[in-house]
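A common beginner's mistake is to predict each chain separately and then try to dock the pieces by hand. The better habit, illustrated here, is to supply every component at once so that their relative placement is modeled jointly.
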Amino acid sequence: MMLTLTIARRELLSFFYSPIAYVVLGLFGFGSALIFFSSFGPSEPAELRPTFEGLIWLLIFLVPAISMRLLSEELRSGTIEPLMTAPVKDTEVIIGKWLGAMGFYATLLSPLLVLVAVLEIYADPHYGPIFTGLLGLLLVGGLYMAIGTFASAATQNQIIAFLIAIFINCLLTFLMFFLPRAEFLGPGMKDAMHYLNVNNQFEDFSKGLIDSSNFVYFLSGIILFLFFSVKTLESRRWR
Amino acid sequence: MSVPAMIHVKDLVKSYGPTLAVDRISFDIPAGRIVGFLGPNGAGKTTTLRMLTGFLPPTAGRITIDGHDVLTQSEKARAQVGYLPESTPLYPEMRVDEYLHYRGRLLSMARATRLRQIDRVADRCGLGNIRRRLIGQLSRGNRQRVGLAQALLHEPPVLILDEPTASLDPNQVGEVRKLISSLRGDHTIVLSTHVLPEIEKMADDVLIIAAGRIVAKGSPDELRRNVGQGARVVVEVKASPEAVERAFRGVSGVGTVETSGRDGWTHAVVNQEHGCDAREGLGQALCANGWQVRELRHETASLEQFFIEITAQQQQAPAGSAA
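With all components supplied together, the output reads:
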């Protein structure tokens, strides 16, 4: 546990030295403000729901930009060697990396608090849906980050890691959105795809609902992809 | 039962697909020895060291470090080892002290121990005035010191150093060599290099690897003795090459003579027959002819010649060893 936190801490600090982090931070802040103010005005409901539902699309591309260097950079520069020869388990390395990146992601979400403050000044917002929406964003980010960690463990090329992660994220969103519209799919398949769609799972959170099935979806997705990451990292030793 | 070796390697094999990088090597290293791995680039040195540290799993064979199997008791074995990988990979965005603290935490060292040990290794590796600097801005030599400090941090019984002096300038090479020699006795050290003088000066034992096999082992002195007919005499005289060659051939103990002439001077390399010393006879021959001499030099056999000989033999038949 301590080792995991040690790795997470180093990872988090190193984000603040990388230029990409600031680009992502800027894009996210700009994107969220843009979406927020496009639906901000008199007679509009005092909520962040449109902002959340817009941001969820932005995350498909932004989270991979955060996760792409997690392991790729270590594999490329060779720092993986002193890391893996220290008495540390592969699982601790992966979870540490993911946690560190999640720490940075939490920083990324912090400008949203400014938007909450704006709502508070001009209106009287309901805090329930805002809270669940933020929680939902955290879970979606966690899933995308686990996918990104897996992609990053698979290659020493950051660009490839970035693209693999976006590809998987798109499978879980765009594909699951459009494919159920096809005629040839049976109702069972359509239900399954509806279930796998990240955006559908997020919908309840943005409405202010907390459903345990949504938690199960995100947590099992995160665990699954972190498990793939550990196996991918392990397999590098056997190649 | 005899004292178990600190590092025990038995029938170690590593293949990358069809390529055999390490071909059934076995050796034992007793505690406290400095052992040099010597071999041309691509001989399997780095692969072997990586297997010792647990970074690469062997295709076959067994490695134990201080009695712990590197595969099955990996973490225990890894805790015994300080490792300096080839080309010293470090995080450029970290400060030296920050990095050493991070390594200390990975080794589960308590804060007080960490502070004490960092001071100790910083002192030992001469990090004094660079401890606050960013690693990315350090010179090659200083990076190497940080790498060594990191490897020494927890006073591991075993140190594995992959090319510790590669790409350093001669002064830095001297410093690193001095540092490694100062660790003699406290640690069992395995280091690899393709630079010969280094091994001759530092190592107690040498393992020469070529094409994934150990082709020779022993102390530097023992290996040098094996070289045998390596000694030769180099002479430069003012005479025609033919005359010089004729004169030298007559001397007892002389094997072959190679001559080349330039500006009226002849450069002759005289290889002596096994176990003979032809210097006296050559001197007499020079006096008898009354030639002007501007060079007369006896070249003793070095490990270098042995190394070239033995690795050249290997390279002539690499196909057989790879099958």
